[in-house]
Design a protein that fits this description.
alpha+beta; PH-domain like; 3 domains; seven-stranded antiparallel β-sheet
Length: 370
């Protein structure tokens, strides 16, 4: 029926008068067009691809059409079969055309928004997270760490079963190692060290005094002193609040808001920082500071730092300069130099010292996850 024409109203944009016109579809082979015929006037041809619909009109007489661009003319086709055909053959009825002047403004606004976000992410957020890490109460940092460690446990285990290992003898050996290391350290935290049953040579610090050692790291060590060196290094990250800064930086505004208001179960984006904490890539300065702290901590405990260097060499030999899902200890580019510094910093003889664990206790620690 549309090919023979339907009655419609036409407003030419020069007056408020409605003109009676006949509309039909022509030029099917080229996508179609509406031919608008008015007595005494030349027919108007509106290509289908340029038709746009006007919404929210005061009087609902039918579908109100216009041409894209600045043409003020309007065409009203009554509701019914003709309207259905128009909607079917006109794919861009509701496409909005943005004027070029507005496009330029949008590009300027978008560029400004990108620059602002970049400034926040690359400059302000790192500075703010670093300052907040120094200012937040320890109680809130501990609460954040407690939630984070629970989420990391669930993330790695992928089940409801906890990865934390316990055995009576193994727990006693771990407590003895921690006590020996921290007896003269005057730490601001009460350390909470856990061993996860996870076959990876890794260890990492979590805000609030939490440290995780993977069972794979303990199995790879040749002595309790090598494990003690890695543990001392992670204690350095804890004391310097490197993991707290990393968490705030990764979680962004959600982490900062959670830190301020203490909402770590819902609003705080713990899951966003899980991988970052497990495979933390600290700056070279942060790693050097943690190493220096470890050397001093080992010396105060009457232990050599040379075994710590030996363990770093072992990781370097096994993994080289690779990165990825392996321990951040192994992927650090300065691992060889750090190993040499650990041996050079040792003030205790590699032989004339009291072992941190005896042979039985060392085996108990190695078997804690069995």
């Amino acid at each position: 029926m549309f090919d023979q024409g339907v009655s419609a109203k036409f407003f030419d944009g020069r007056s408020a008068r409605a003109h009676k016109v006949t509309v039909r579809v022509v030029d099917h082979e080229n996508g179609g067009a509406l031919l608008i015929t008015q007595d005494g006037h030349l027919p108007r041809r509106w290509p289908v691809q340029h038709l746009r619909e006007l919404h929210h009109q005061a009087r609902d007489e039918g579908i109100v059409l216009r041409l894209d661009g600045n043409d003020p003319a309007r065409l009203i086709i009554p509701h019914g079969p003709a309207e259905i055909i128009v909607r079917k053959i006109s794919p861009d009825l509701n496409q909005r055309q943005i004027p070029k002047s507005m496009q330029r403004k949008l590009l300027i606004w978008a560029g400004g928004a990108i620059a602002s976000v970049s400034l926040i992410l690359l400059v302000l957020l790192p500075v703010l997270s670093g300052q907040l890490a120094k200012m937040i109460p320890l109680s809130r940092e501990v609460a954040m760490g407690r939630t984070a460690i629970e989420q990391i446990d669930k993330y790695l285990s992928k089940s409801d079963k906890s990865l934390t290992c316990h055995s009576e003898a193994g727990d006693l050996a771990l407590v003895k190692m921690i006590t020996r290391l921290t007896a003269r350290a005057n730490l601001p935290y009460q350390l909470n060290v856990r061993i996860f049953n996870y076959n990876q040579e890794n260890a990492f610090a979590v805000p609030g005094g939490y440290i995780v050692l993977f069972s794979g790291l303990i199995k790879a060590a040749d002595s309790a002193e090598e494990v003690a060196g890695v543990l001392a290094h992670e204690i350095g990250h804890v004391v310097h609040r490197d993991s707290t800064r990393q968490t705030l930086r990764t979680a962004g505004s959600a982490g900062i808001i959670g830190m301020i208001f203490g909402d770590f179960a819902g609003g705080f984006a713990v899951l966003a920082v899980t991988k970052q904490l497990i495979n933390a890539k600290y700056s070279q300065g942060a790693e050097s500071s943690a190493d220096s702290f470890a050397h001093e901590l080992l010396a105060k405990a009457g232990l050599p730092s040379a075994p710590m260097g030996n363990f770093f060499d072992k990781l370097k030999k096994k993994y080289g300069g690779k990165s990825g899902l392996m321990s951040h200890l192994a992927s650090h580019p300065e691992l060889g130099k750090r190993a040499a510094k650990a041996r050079a910093a040792s003030v205790v003889s590699a032989t004339g010292f009291q072992p941190i664990l005896n042979a039985t206790e060392w085996q108990d620690l190695r078997n804690i996850c069995r």
